[in-house]
Amino acid sequence: MSTAHHRKKQPLFVRRQLLEVAARLASEKGMTAVTLDAVSGASGVSKGGLLHHFPSKNMLLEALFDSLIERLDAAIEEAMRADPLPHGRFTRGYLHACLSLRDQPQGTKDWAQVTMVLLSEPQLRQRWHDWVRERSEEYVGTDSSVDAAIVRLATDGIWLADLLGSQDMDESARHRLVERLIELTQL
Amino acid sequence: MSTAHHRKKQPLFVRRQLLEVAARLASEKGMTAVTLDAVSGASGVSKGGLLHHFPSKNMLLEALFDSLIERLDAAIEEAMRADPLPHGRFTRGYLHACLSLRDQPQGTKDWAQVTMVLLSEPQLRQRWHDWVRERSEEYVGTDSSVDAAIVRLATDGIWLADLLGSQDMDESARHRLVERLIELTQL
DNA sequence: CATAACATACCAATTAGACGGTTTCGTCAA
DNA sequence: TTGACGAAACCGTCTAATTGGTATGTTATG
Protein backbone atom coordinates (compact mmCIF):
# COMPACT_ATOMS: atom_id res chain seq x y z
CA MET A 1 0.00 0.00 0.00
CA SER A 2 2.74 2.44 0.92
CA THR A 3 4.88 3.83 -1.80
CA ALA A 4 7.97 2.81 0.12
CA HIS A 5 9.06 0.15 -2.24
CA HIS A 6 8.40 2.29 -5.25
CA ARG A 7 11.55 4.15 -4.51
CA LYS A 8 14.66 3.69 -6.49
CA LYS A 9 16.55 0.51 -5.70
CA GLN A 10 19.96 1.08 -4.22
CA PRO A 11 21.08 -2.19 -2.65
CA LEU A 12 24.53 -1.06 -1.56
CA PHE A 13 23.21 2.06 0.11
CA VAL A 14 20.43 0.19 1.90
CA ARG A 15 22.84 -2.48 3.06
CA ARG A 16 25.20 0.14 4.42
CA GLN A 17 22.31 1.92 6.07
CA LEU A 18 21.17 -1.24 7.81
CA LEU A 19 24.64 -1.87 9.19
CA GLU A 20 24.91 1.66 10.48
CA VAL A 21 21.56 1.52 12.20
CA ALA A 22 22.46 -1.81 13.79
CA ALA A 23 25.71 -0.29 15.02
CA ARG A 24 23.97 2.73 16.47
CA LEU A 25 21.42 0.60 18.26
CA ALA A 26 24.12 -1.64 19.66
CA SER A 27 26.23 1.20 21.00
CA GLU A 28 23.35 3.23 22.35
CA LYS A 29 21.07 0.59 23.79
CA GLY A 30 23.09 -2.60 23.96
CA MET A 31 22.82 -5.93 22.24
CA THR A 32 19.35 -6.71 23.51
CA ALA A 33 18.09 -3.72 21.54
CA VAL A 34 19.48 -5.02 18.28
CA THR A 35 16.42 -6.85 17.03
CA LEU A 36 15.33 -7.37 13.45
CA ASP A 37 12.26 -5.26 14.04
CA ALA A 38 14.22 -2.43 15.60
CA VAL A 39 16.85 -2.37 12.87
CA SER A 40 14.38 -2.51 10.04
CA GLY A 41 12.12 0.01 11.69
CA ALA A 42 14.84 2.57 12.35
CA SER A 43 16.20 2.13 8.85
CA GLY A 44 12.93 2.78 7.07
CA VAL A 45 13.37 -0.65 5.54
CA SER A 46 10.91 -3.46 5.97
CA LYS A 47 11.86 -6.59 7.83
CA GLY A 48 11.61 -8.52 4.60
CA GLY A 49 14.06 -6.12 3.05
CA LEU A 50 16.43 -6.53 5.94
CA LEU A 51 16.27 -10.30 5.72
CA HIS A 52 16.88 -10.09 2.02
CA HIS A 53 20.26 -8.49 2.63
CA PHE A 54 21.10 -10.51 5.72
CA PRO A 55 19.45 -13.94 5.75
CA SER A 56 19.60 -14.15 9.55
CA LYS A 57 20.39 -12.06 12.56
CA ASN A 58 23.73 -13.77 12.97
CA MET A 59 24.62 -12.90 9.40
CA LEU A 60 23.84 -9.28 10.16
CA LEU A 61 26.09 -9.26 13.20
CA GLU A 62 28.89 -10.99 11.35
CA ALA A 63 28.67 -8.53 8.51
CA LEU A 64 28.83 -5.69 10.99
CA PHE A 65 31.87 -7.22 12.60
CA ASP A 66 33.50 -7.69 9.20
CA SER A 67 33.00 -4.07 8.29
CA LEU A 68 34.64 -2.98 11.52
CA ILE A 69 37.63 -5.24 11.00
CA GLU A 70 37.91 -3.93 7.47
CA ARG A 71 38.03 -0.38 8.74
CA LEU A 72 40.65 -1.26 11.30
CA ASP A 73 42.82 -3.05 8.77
CA ALA A 74 42.66 -0.14 6.38
CA ALA A 75 43.55 2.36 9.09
CA ILE A 76 46.51 0.28 10.23
CA GLU A 77 47.83 -0.15 6.74
CA GLU A 78 47.54 3.54 6.07
CA ALA A 79 49.39 4.42 9.25
CA MET A 80 52.11 1.88 8.54
CA ARG A 81 52.74 3.26 5.07
CA ALA A 82 53.61 6.62 6.58
CA ASP A 83 56.08 5.06 9.01
CA PRO A 84 59.66 4.69 7.77
CA LEU A 85 61.08 2.84 10.77
CA PRO A 86 60.53 -0.95 10.57
CA HIS A 87 61.07 -1.67 14.25
CA GLY A 88 57.74 -1.43 16.08
CA ARG A 89 55.97 -0.23 12.98
CA PHE A 90 52.93 -2.44 13.36
CA THR A 91 52.50 -1.49 16.98
CA ARG A 92 52.58 2.20 16.11
CA GLY A 93 50.19 1.55 13.25
CA TYR A 94 47.82 -0.21 15.60
CA LEU A 95 48.02 2.67 18.04
CA HIS A 96 47.41 5.34 15.42
CA ALA A 97 44.64 3.38 13.78
CA CYS A 98 42.72 3.01 17.02
CA LEU A 99 43.19 6.68 17.78
CA SER A 100 42.06 7.81 14.35
CA LEU A 101 39.01 5.56 14.25
CA ARG A 102 37.97 7.12 17.51
CA ASP A 103 37.12 10.55 16.28
CA GLN A 104 36.00 9.94 12.76
CA PRO A 105 32.38 11.07 12.60
CA GLN A 106 31.89 9.54 9.19
CA GLY A 107 30.15 6.25 8.75
CA THR A 108 29.79 4.05 11.78
CA LYS A 109 30.03 6.21 14.84
CA ASP A 110 31.12 4.98 18.23
CA TRP A 111 33.42 2.41 16.77
CA ALA A 112 34.76 1.30 20.12
CA GLN A 113 31.36 0.74 21.65
CA VAL A 114 30.14 -1.27 18.73
CA THR A 115 33.20 -3.46 18.76
CA MET A 116 32.79 -4.00 22.47
CA VAL A 117 29.20 -4.98 22.11
CA LEU A 118 30.03 -7.38 19.33
CA LEU A 119 32.85 -8.92 21.35
CA SER A 120 30.34 -9.59 24.08
CA GLU A 121 28.81 -12.11 21.69
CA PRO A 122 30.72 -15.34 22.20
CA GLN A 123 30.24 -16.35 18.59
CA LEU A 124 32.31 -13.40 17.40
CA ARG A 125 35.12 -13.61 19.93
CA GLN A 126 36.86 -16.35 18.01
CA ARG A 127 37.09 -14.21 14.90
CA TRP A 128 38.65 -11.36 16.80
CA HIS A 129 41.05 -13.79 18.38
CA ASP A 130 42.02 -15.13 14.97
CA TRP A 131 42.60 -11.61 13.75
CA VAL A 132 44.92 -10.81 16.66
CA ARG A 133 46.78 -14.05 16.20
CA GLU A 134 47.35 -13.50 12.48
CA ARG A 135 48.84 -10.08 13.08
CA SER A 136 51.06 -11.08 15.96
CA GLU A 137 52.49 -13.85 13.80
CA GLU A 138 52.94 -11.66 10.76
CA TYR A 139 54.88 -9.02 12.63
CA VAL A 140 56.81 -11.22 14.99
CA GLY A 141 60.09 -9.94 13.53
CA THR A 142 59.52 -6.27 14.26
CA ASP A 143 56.95 -6.09 17.07
CA SER A 144 57.66 -8.83 19.56
CA SER A 145 59.41 -6.89 22.29
CA VAL A 146 57.91 -6.68 25.74
CA ASP A 147 57.49 -2.93 25.43
CA ALA A 148 55.70 -3.30 22.10
CA ALA A 149 53.31 -5.76 23.69
CA ILE A 150 52.69 -3.28 26.47
CA VAL A 151 51.94 -0.52 24.01
CA ARG A 152 49.46 -2.71 22.17
CA LEU A 153 47.79 -3.68 25.42
CA ALA A 154 47.64 -0.05 26.47
CA THR A 155 46.09 0.77 23.11
CA ASP A 156 43.37 -1.71 23.88
CA GLY A 157 43.02 0.02 27.22
CA ILE A 158 42.57 3.39 25.53
CA TRP A 159 40.02 1.83 23.24
CA LEU A 160 38.24 0.49 26.27
CA ALA A 161 38.31 3.82 28.06
CA ASP A 162 36.92 5.55 25.02
CA LEU A 163 33.81 3.48 24.97
CA LEU A 164 32.83 4.91 28.31
CA GLY A 165 32.77 8.31 26.75
CA SER A 166 34.88 9.55 29.60
CA GLN A 167 36.43 12.91 28.90
CA ASP A 168 38.62 12.81 31.98
CA MET A 169 41.80 13.21 29.97
CA ASP A 170 42.56 16.56 28.42
CA GLU A 171 44.27 16.99 25.10
CA SER A 172 47.74 17.70 26.42
CA ALA A 173 47.75 14.75 28.79
CA ARG A 174 46.63 12.53 25.99
CA HIS A 175 49.37 13.85 23.77
CA ARG A 176 52.02 13.13 26.35
CA LEU A 177 50.60 9.65 26.77
CA VAL A 178 50.77 8.89 23.08
CA GLU A 179 54.27 10.36 22.83
CA ARG A 180 55.46 8.09 25.59
CA LEU A 181 53.80 5.06 23.99
CA ILE A 182 55.53 5.75 20.69
CA GLU A 183 58.78 6.15 22.54
CA LEU A 184 58.29 2.72 24.06
CA THR A 185 57.87 1.13 20.65
CA GLN A 186 61.27 2.44 19.62
CA LEU A 187 63.26 1.01 22.53
CA MET B 1 2.82 -29.68 43.02
CA SER B 2 6.51 -30.38 43.17
CA THR B 3 8.14 -30.45 46.55
CA ALA B 4 10.70 -27.94 45.39
CA HIS B 5 9.49 -25.14 47.53
CA HIS B 6 9.28 -27.29 50.60
CA ARG B 7 13.01 -27.16 50.91
CA LYS B 8 14.69 -25.23 53.60
CA LYS B 9 14.79 -21.50 53.01
CA GLN B 10 18.20 -20.12 52.38
CA PRO B 11 17.75 -16.70 50.83
CA LEU B 12 21.40 -15.75 50.69
CA PHE B 13 22.42 -18.99 49.08
CA VAL B 14 19.67 -18.84 46.49
CA ARG B 15 20.47 -15.25 45.71
CA ARG B 16 24.11 -16.08 45.22
CA GLN B 17 23.19 -19.06 43.09
CA LEU B 18 21.03 -16.92 40.83
CA LEU B 19 23.83 -14.43 40.30
CA GLU B 20 26.30 -17.17 39.46
CA VAL B 21 23.99 -18.75 36.94
CA ALA B 22 23.33 -15.38 35.35
CA ALA B 23 27.08 -14.80 35.12
CA ARG B 24 27.69 -18.17 33.55
CA LEU B 25 24.97 -17.66 30.98
CA ALA B 26 26.28 -14.22 30.13
CA SER B 27 29.86 -15.33 29.63
CA GLU B 28 29.03 -18.52 27.76
CA LYS B 29 26.15 -17.45 25.56
CA GLY B 30 26.08 -13.67 25.63
CA MET B 31 23.62 -11.17 26.96
CA THR B 32 20.76 -12.29 24.78
CA ALA B 33 20.83 -15.63 26.58
CA VAL B 34 20.37 -14.03 29.98
CA THR B 35 16.60 -14.27 30.22
CA LEU B 36 14.52 -14.66 33.34
CA ASP B 37 13.38 -18.07 32.18
CA ALA B 38 16.90 -19.24 31.44
CA VAL B 39 18.28 -18.03 34.76
CA SER B 40 15.48 -19.43 36.84
CA GLY B 41 15.51 -22.68 34.90
CA ALA B 42 19.24 -23.28 35.22
CA SER B 43 19.12 -22.37 38.90
CA GLY B 44 16.41 -24.78 39.85
CA VAL B 45 14.51 -21.75 41.10
CA SER B 46 11.13 -20.74 39.81
CA LYS B 47 10.64 -17.50 37.98
CA GLY B 48 8.57 -16.25 40.87
CA GLY B 49 11.44 -16.96 43.18
CA LEU B 50 13.87 -15.18 40.92
CA LEU B 51 11.64 -12.13 40.70
CA HIS B 52 11.30 -12.14 44.45
CA HIS B 53 15.03 -11.64 44.90
CA PHE B 54 15.45 -9.31 41.92
CA PRO B 55 12.29 -7.36 41.16
CA SER B 56 13.29 -6.88 37.52
CA LYS B 57 15.84 -8.03 35.03
CA ASN B 58 17.70 -4.76 35.34
CA MET B 59 17.94 -5.23 39.08
CA LEU B 60 19.47 -8.62 38.49
CA LEU B 61 22.11 -7.22 36.16
CA GLU B 62 22.91 -4.37 38.49
CA ALA B 63 23.31 -6.73 41.39
CA LEU B 64 25.63 -8.86 39.31
CA PHE B 65 27.67 -5.82 38.41
CA ASP B 66 27.84 -4.77 42.04
CA SER B 67 29.17 -8.12 43.12
CA LEU B 68 31.91 -7.93 40.53
CA ILE B 69 32.95 -4.44 41.59
CA GLU B 70 32.98 -5.63 45.17
CA ARG B 71 35.34 -8.43 44.27
CA LEU B 72 37.61 -6.09 42.40
CA ASP B 73 37.73 -3.59 45.25
CA ALA B 74 38.58 -6.29 47.74
CA ALA B 75 41.35 -7.69 45.56
CA ILE B 76 42.88 -4.26 45.03
CA GLU B 77 42.80 -3.43 48.71
CA GLU B 78 44.42 -6.72 49.57
CA ALA B 79 47.20 -6.19 47.04
CA MET B 80 47.79 -2.65 48.23
CA ARG B 81 48.18 -3.73 51.85
CA ALA B 82 51.10 -5.92 50.87
CA ASP B 83 52.84 -3.08 49.05
CA PRO B 84 55.20 -0.91 51.14
CA LEU B 85 56.06 1.63 48.45
CA PRO B 86 53.52 4.48 48.22
CA HIS B 87 54.49 5.65 44.74
CA GLY B 88 52.44 3.77 42.15
CA ARG B 89 50.88 1.56 44.78
CA PHE B 90 47.35 1.78 43.45
CA THR B 91 48.45 1.02 39.93
CA ARG B 92 50.31 -2.07 41.09
CA GLY B 93 47.30 -3.05 43.16
CA TYR B 94 45.07 -2.70 40.16
CA LEU B 95 47.42 -4.82 38.10
CA HIS B 96 47.71 -7.57 40.68
CA ALA B 97 44.02 -7.58 41.40
CA CYS B 98 43.11 -8.09 37.76
CA LEU B 99 45.69 -10.83 37.44
CA SER B 100 44.53 -12.64 40.55
CA LEU B 101 40.85 -12.45 39.69
CA ARG B 102 41.69 -14.07 36.40
CA ASP B 103 42.54 -17.50 37.68
CA GLN B 104 40.41 -17.84 40.75
CA PRO B 105 38.11 -20.78 40.09
CA GLN B 106 36.00 -20.02 43.14
CA GLY B 107 32.68 -18.35 42.83
CA THR B 108 31.93 -16.47 39.64
CA LYS B 109 34.12 -17.87 36.94
CA ASP B 110 35.15 -16.02 33.84
CA TRP B 111 35.23 -12.73 35.63
CA ALA B 112 36.57 -10.86 32.65
CA GLN B 113 33.95 -12.11 30.27
CA VAL B 114 31.13 -11.31 32.60
CA THR B 115 32.41 -7.81 33.17
CA MET B 116 32.76 -7.32 29.44
CA VAL B 117 29.26 -8.47 28.78
CA LEU B 118 27.92 -6.21 31.47
CA LEU B 119 29.86 -3.24 30.15
CA SER B 120 28.20 -3.82 26.83
CA GLU B 121 24.99 -2.71 28.53
CA PRO B 122 24.92 1.06 28.29
CA GLN B 123 23.01 1.37 31.53
CA LEU B 124 25.94 -0.06 33.43
CA ARG B 125 28.73 1.83 31.71
CA GLN B 126 28.11 4.92 33.80
CA ARG B 127 28.64 3.02 37.01
CA TRP B 128 31.97 1.67 35.81
CA HIS B 129 32.93 5.13 34.71
CA ASP B 130 32.11 6.50 38.14
CA TRP B 131 34.20 3.79 39.74
CA VAL B 132 37.21 4.61 37.60
CA ARG B 133 36.82 8.31 38.25
CA GLU B 134 36.63 7.88 42.01
CA ARG B 135 39.84 5.89 42.08
CA SER B 136 41.79 8.14 39.80
CA GLU B 137 40.88 11.09 42.01
CA GLU B 138 41.66 9.28 45.23
CA TYR B 139 45.15 8.28 44.14
CA VAL B 140 46.09 11.36 42.19
CA GLY B 141 49.03 11.94 44.53
CA THR B 142 50.77 8.64 43.98
CA ASP B 143 49.52 7.30 40.64
CA SER B 144 49.23 10.16 38.20
CA SER B 145 52.39 9.71 36.16
CA VAL B 146 52.19 8.97 32.47
CA ASP B 147 53.82 5.59 32.96
CA ALA B 148 51.35 4.67 35.69
CA ALA B 149 48.50 5.53 33.34
CA ILE B 150 50.07 3.34 30.70
CA VAL B 151 50.33 0.45 33.11
CA ARG B 152 46.69 0.75 34.06
CA LEU B 153 45.67 0.91 30.42
CA ALA B 154 47.81 -2.12 29.68
CA THR B 155 46.15 -3.90 32.57
CA ASP B 156 42.82 -3.27 30.93
CA GLY B 157 44.34 -4.64 27.76
CA ILE B 158 45.40 -7.82 29.54
CA TRP B 159 41.92 -8.10 30.96
CA LEU B 160 40.54 -7.74 27.48
CA ALA B 161 42.91 -10.33 26.05
CA ASP B 162 41.99 -12.77 28.77
CA LEU B 163 38.36 -12.77 27.86
CA LEU B 164 39.21 -14.18 24.48
CA GLY B 165 40.68 -17.19 26.20
CA SER B 166 43.75 -16.77 24.08
CA GLN B 167 46.63 -18.80 25.35
CA ASP B 168 49.10 -17.26 22.99
CA MET B 169 51.32 -16.04 25.78
CA ASP B 170 53.34 -18.55 27.74
CA GLU B 171 54.09 -18.27 31.41
CA SER B 172 57.58 -16.83 31.12
CA ALA B 173 56.57 -14.19 28.60
CA ARG B 174 53.74 -13.16 30.86
CA HIS B 175 56.09 -12.96 33.80
CA ARG B 176 58.46 -10.69 31.93
CA LEU B 177 55.53 -8.54 30.89
CA VAL B 178 54.32 -8.11 34.45
CA GLU B 179 57.84 -7.45 35.68
CA ARG B 180 58.25 -4.68 33.16
CA LEU B 181 54.88 -3.19 34.05
CA ILE B 182 55.78 -3.09 37.71
CA GLU B 183 59.08 -1.48 36.80
CA LEU B 184 57.19 1.22 34.93
CA THR B 185 55.13 2.06 37.99
CA GLN B 186 58.28 2.74 39.94
CA LEU B 187 59.85 5.26 37.57
C1' DC C 1 11.28 -11.59 -19.21
C1' DA C 2 14.34 -13.05 -15.49
C1' DT C 3 16.14 -11.78 -11.50
C1' DA C 4 17.34 -8.87 -7.73
C1' DA C 5 15.39 -5.63 -4.54
C1' DC C 6 12.27 -4.75 -1.90
C1' DA C 7 7.31 -5.00 0.85
C1' DT C 8 3.33 -7.24 3.50
C1' DA C 9 1.36 -10.67 6.10
C1' DC C 10 1.73 -14.03 8.77
C1' DC C 11 3.62 -17.66 12.53
C1' DA C 12 5.42 -20.36 16.51
C1' DA C 13 8.27 -19.46 20.16
C1' DT C 14 9.97 -16.67 23.62
C1' DT C 15 9.99 -12.67 26.44
C1' DA C 16 9.44 -9.78 30.91
C1' DG C 17 6.63 -9.49 34.34
C1' DA C 18 2.01 -9.71 37.07
C1' DC C 19 -0.49 -12.39 40.03
C1' DG C 20 -2.20 -15.36 43.67
C1' DG C 21 -1.10 -19.22 46.15
C1' DT C 22 1.83 -22.08 49.63
C1' DT C 23 5.46 -22.91 52.93
C1' DT C 24 8.82 -21.48 56.29
C1' DC C 25 10.71 -18.20 59.67
C1' DG C 26 11.16 -14.79 63.43
C1' DT C 27 8.99 -12.94 67.27
C1' DC C 28 6.38 -12.07 71.05
C1' DA C 29 2.62 -12.74 74.11
C1' DA C 30 0.42 -16.12 77.18
C1' DT D 1 7.26 -23.85 76.27
C1' DT D 2 3.98 -22.97 73.16
C1' DG D 3 1.49 -21.23 69.52
C1' DA D 4 -0.44 -17.44 66.90
C1' DC D 5 0.64 -14.37 63.31
C1' DG D 6 2.68 -11.31 60.09
C1' DA D 7 6.33 -11.24 56.93
C1' DA D 8 9.65 -13.25 54.00
C1' DA D 9 10.83 -16.87 50.82
C1' DC D 10 9.43 -19.31 47.61
C1' DC D 11 6.24 -21.71 43.61
C1' DG D 12 3.49 -22.16 39.22
C1' DT D 13 0.47 -20.00 35.90
C1' DC D 14 -1.16 -16.49 32.88
C1' DT D 15 -0.70 -12.81 29.44
C1' DA D 16 0.35 -9.21 26.31
C1' DA D 17 4.05 -7.97 23.67
C1' DT D 18 8.03 -9.08 21.11
C1' DT D 19 11.11 -12.22 18.97
C1' DG D 20 13.50 -14.39 14.68
C1' DG D 21 12.03 -16.24 10.66
C1' DT D 22 8.89 -17.86 6.51
C1' DA D 23 6.01 -17.39 2.72
C1' DT D 24 4.29 -14.79 -0.76
C1' DG D 25 3.68 -10.97 -2.88
C1' DT D 26 5.03 -6.45 -5.88
C1' DT D 27 8.16 -3.37 -8.28
C1' DA D 28 12.30 -1.98 -10.57
C1' DT D 29 16.28 -3.01 -13.48
C1' DG D 30 19.27 -5.21 -16.71
From TrEMBL, chains A, B:
GO terms for molecular function: DNA-binding transcription factor activity; transcription cis-regulatory region binding. SUPFAM superfamilies: Homeodomain-like (SSF46689), Tetracyclin repressor-like, C-terminal domain (SSF48498). Residues 12-72 form the HTH tetR-type domain. Residues 35-54 bind DNA. It holds the Pfam family TetR_N. Gene3D superfamilies: Tetracycline Repressor, domain 2. InterPro entries: Homeodomain-like_sf, HTH-type_TetR-like_transc_reg, HTH_TetR, Tet_transcr_reg_TetR-rel_C_sf, TetR_CgmR_C. This is Transcriptional regulator, TetR family. It comes from Rhizobium lusitanum.
